[in-house]
Amino acid sequence: xxxxxxxxxxxxxxxxxxxxxxxxxxxxxxxxxxxxxxxxxxxxxxxxxxxxxxxxxxxxxxxxxxxxxxxxxxxxxxxxxxxxxxxxxxxxxxxxxxxxxxxxxxxxxxxxxxxxxxxxxxxxxxxxxxxxxxxxxxxxxxxxxxxxxxxxxxxxxxxxxxxxxxxxxxxxxxxxxxxxxxxxxxxxxxxxxxxxxxxxxxxxxxxxxxxxxxxxxxxxxxxxxxxxxxxxxxxxxxxxxxxxxxxxxxxxxxxxxxxxxxxxxxxxxxxxxxxxxxxxxxxxxxxxxxxxxxxxxxxxxxxxxxxxxxxx
Amino acid sequence: xxxxxxxxxxxxxxxxxxxxxxxxxxxxxxxxxxxxxxxxxxxxxxxxxxxxxxxxxxxxxxxxxxxxxxxxxxxxxxxxxxxxxxxxxxxxxxxxxxxxxxxxxxxxxxxxxxxxxxxxxxxxxxxxxxxxxxxxxxxxxxxxxxxxxxxxxxxxxxxxxxxxxxxxxxxxxxxxxxxxxxxxxxxxxxxxxxxxxxxxxxxxxxxxxxxxxxxxxxxxxxxxxxxxxxxxxxxxxxxxxxxxxxxxxxxxxxxxxxxxxxxxxxxxxxxxxxxxxxxxxxxxxxxxxxxxxxxxxxxxxxxxxxxxxxxx
Lengths: 312, 312
Fold this sequence. Notes:
Two copies of one chain form a homodimer. In chain A, 35% of the residues lie in helices and 25% in strands. In chain A, helix 5 (175-185) packs across helix 8. In chain A, helix 3 (93-110) links the parallel strand 3 (77-88) and strand 4 (113-121). Chain A folds into two domains: 28-135, CATH 3.30.1330.10; 149-310, Alpha-Beta Complex (Phosphoribosyl-aminoimidazole Synthetase, Chain A, domain 2), CATH 3.90.650. Mean pLDDT of chain A is 93; it is low at 306-312. Chain A is α+β, with helices and mostly antiparallel strands. In chain A, strands 7-9-6-10-8-11-12 form a seven-stranded mixed β-sheet. In chain A, strands 1-2-5-3-4 form a five-stranded mixed β-sheet. The two termini of chain A are 25 Å apart. At the A-B interface, helix 1, strand 1, strand 2, strand 3 and helix 3 of A face helix 1, strand 1, strand 2, strand 3 and helix 3 of B.
């Protein structure tokens, strides 16, 4: 049996069984070190899967850090230390230096520090980041309570539209198209939410594979049902323009598009913070699964081994 | 300019400059978390560079953990938590499961725990391990003092001979050949030395790229000269048999062969511990560089981007 037959999640289930692991599959692993809770996470960008070698190298470095910071923030932490493991073919030195300029910019922005790493030779570029974060209180995806409101931190679907635009390889892009491309190339992890999550959220994760599948993961881990309202799901002007131009449905992009790195979290309505860009997209109810305007939503989204055709 | 023109170390120097990093390039990065010193390290095994897909999968998992544990032990720590980032083509599920059985066995042996990871699709198998260790006292490669004795923790050169035997792909191997192959496939990190290093060593590192180049690194970081005695360098019976059979010089294997994952460390003679397999191979003197029986030794060894031809 090959990996493509069981998918990424099927593989992870099998590997967890081998390790007798109780890991629930949160964005980070909370561990105890010296009496405090530390968050560990890793995420990889692989050439021709997550990026093309023709992308701006600094964007590759920026994104490699950002996707990891997003995991730490999703669990209520702030990033502290990173290690970078590079696999590199015999590329131009300037390419690697520019990747690192992106890494540096991201680390300055998120206030974390690269403390080490490793370089190996390989056939494709692979940027693997390990990030260590600190937190007052770990918040995972299993704590959603009946009656909680469901929030996201910003517009969804932009990154997917940006990826499609990039792959069109047009000579000239309109301004709104460039914005969407930028959101795919240089997503921003929502560090502004770290304290709010740690202090108030009952459950939290980042939306890396698409709202539909990620909402299912949160619902399943918490043993609840999420009831979402389509009219409240935030959609950017740029995505609306894109969908108008190409005859597409923005809601589908918001539900199925991945890599936006917005946060999905739940807590009681009263904990709403007007200084953060919180969008109230639903409520937590008794039951299971995810519903949109009272219709069941399939757990569709990005699975590395099954639906690669929908990626690059 | 391409990577092959500046080599792995040249690249690392440039990347450190970009990050304004004071990192000296120890085996692990010591960081402060919750008031205690934590060691962070990562190391990758890449298909066709560090292993062939035909190797026993459990050995790949064992080695991926061991090489990281070796880094932590070299700096006086004990391993605690690991993350594993896998890049996988569409291989057999059983292959990945067997890799993980090797990971599990290693974690049980070294008493550490896999707490998370990540899976991506790619063209070649890549096993990237991130390891977090704990220590009472970090010991790096910069503290060697004049008058210290230089020690290694066990025989050198076996792994290199084992690799060469593996690549011969013989139908039948003699017993001593199988032992050498086993040392290449399943090196053991010297966790038995962790406390001794942390308590007594002035400088320490593991020998992953070969005694010659690694001794140079320790000498340079400490600003001292290492004077080694060839007759004291431990060489196994198996390596002697191999060299007799193939007309090779065992000392060359001990000096240039990498991946033995023995420890190289220094401290005053009086701190010798008779319960550990400590081999006194030299002394620390004023000056610079590495000398063998008073003749200068070139810093030769394994560099990922220059001398790949000498690897797989």
